[in-house]
Amino acid sequence: MGVLSLAPLLELPRVVALAGLEGARRMVSVAKVENGQELLRVVLVTSGALLTGDAWGPCIGTVLASLLGSVLAMDVWRRERRAGTLPLPSIRELLQLGWEAPWTLGLRLGIKVGIIRNIDALGVQILPALILGRFASPRWVAYLRIALRLVDVGRLFMKGISRTALPVLSQLASVRDLRGLRRVYWRATLGSGLLIATGLGATALLLRPILGSFLPQEYLEPVWLSFLILLPGTAVVGFSVANDTFYLVTGQLKQAILISVLGLVLNTGVLVACCWRWPDYGAAAGLSFTFLWSLVHVSYAAFWFRTNRAAIDGGSVAAT
Predict the structure, then answer these.
(1) Residue 289: predicted pLDDT
(2) What is the Cα–Cα distance from 159 to 50, expressed in whole angstroms?
């Protein structure tokens, strides 16, 4: 509905506050804002659905959650500034700086990052449901979406690690410490990958009885099997936590877009073939393959570090 278009505008203050808090590495405050936002979203969307009994309730709840999430973010910002631990500007100064800043500032970078994000959303959230709906019943689309929400718990944890890694890697790149850049990248990649894979394995052991308590009986087996099919690919994605940060701080976003476009074409073909061959669980299998494509990004990072070995060993040439 058109009312949902208000949500991104209402979330702008929250996005600005999170960017400042992440840059200052106030990750506890970032967690407060994001957890509060999600809690508000769950409560308001659920309440809206119960009150109206139609789509209007969740839509209004989503918009209100965006508004209140920004209010919460501004309150956390004020508290951090009042504590005096960091030289954060006031909200008035933020508005003034935003008005004075050139509108083209960071535009090219934002467009490149936006292209990558949209390709990821298209390949993971949109196309699988559309293709599965062509080969199977709408009920199987619901099964797949529930399974995706379950494995997305691990992907949400990845975002937290990525946001922590960004300021560290950016600082190392700005002082031309390529050796440190390589060390932090591989530490984040391997550490988060092993941690997320272990967490997903533990989740798989506990999830089935929990699902039996909340889902209708006819949903249990399809959701559970879809979750298991998605599990290997999701575990591999856990090793991609620092990929976006790597591309940003090394100026390799063009290569990231190229790899993402190639992946979208190949993965869509695999997805269609899987859905045609296995109408029920084919989309989950195709998505798991799509997640495995993240290894290509890790391989490119390894190639870049190897190509720039002389600069890294010398420690005197900036990332380009």
Answers:
(1) 92
(2) 31
pTM: 0.73
Spatial separation of the C-alpha atoms in residues 153 and 208, rounded to whole Å:
16
Total Cβ atoms within 10 A of residue 110: 10
Under 8 Å between Cβ of 22 and 30: yes
Rounded alpha-carbon distances, angstroms, from residue 258 to 252, 281, 296: 10, 29, 11
Which pair of tokens denotes residue 300? 């490119």
3-state helix, strand, coil in the chain (%, to 5): 85, 0, 15
DSSP 51-103: HHSSTHHHHHHHHHHHHHHHHHHHHHHHHHHHHTSS-PPPHHHHHHHHHHS-T
Q: Could you count the other beta carbons within 10 Å of the beta carbon of residue 175?
A: 11
pLDDT over 90 (residue 148):
no
Tell me how far CA of residue 164 lies from CA of 22, 37, 142, 291, in angstroms. Answer: 7, 19, 33, 22
Q: 40 to each of 34, 48, 75, 211, 214, how far by Cα in Å?
A: 10, 12, 15, 24, 22
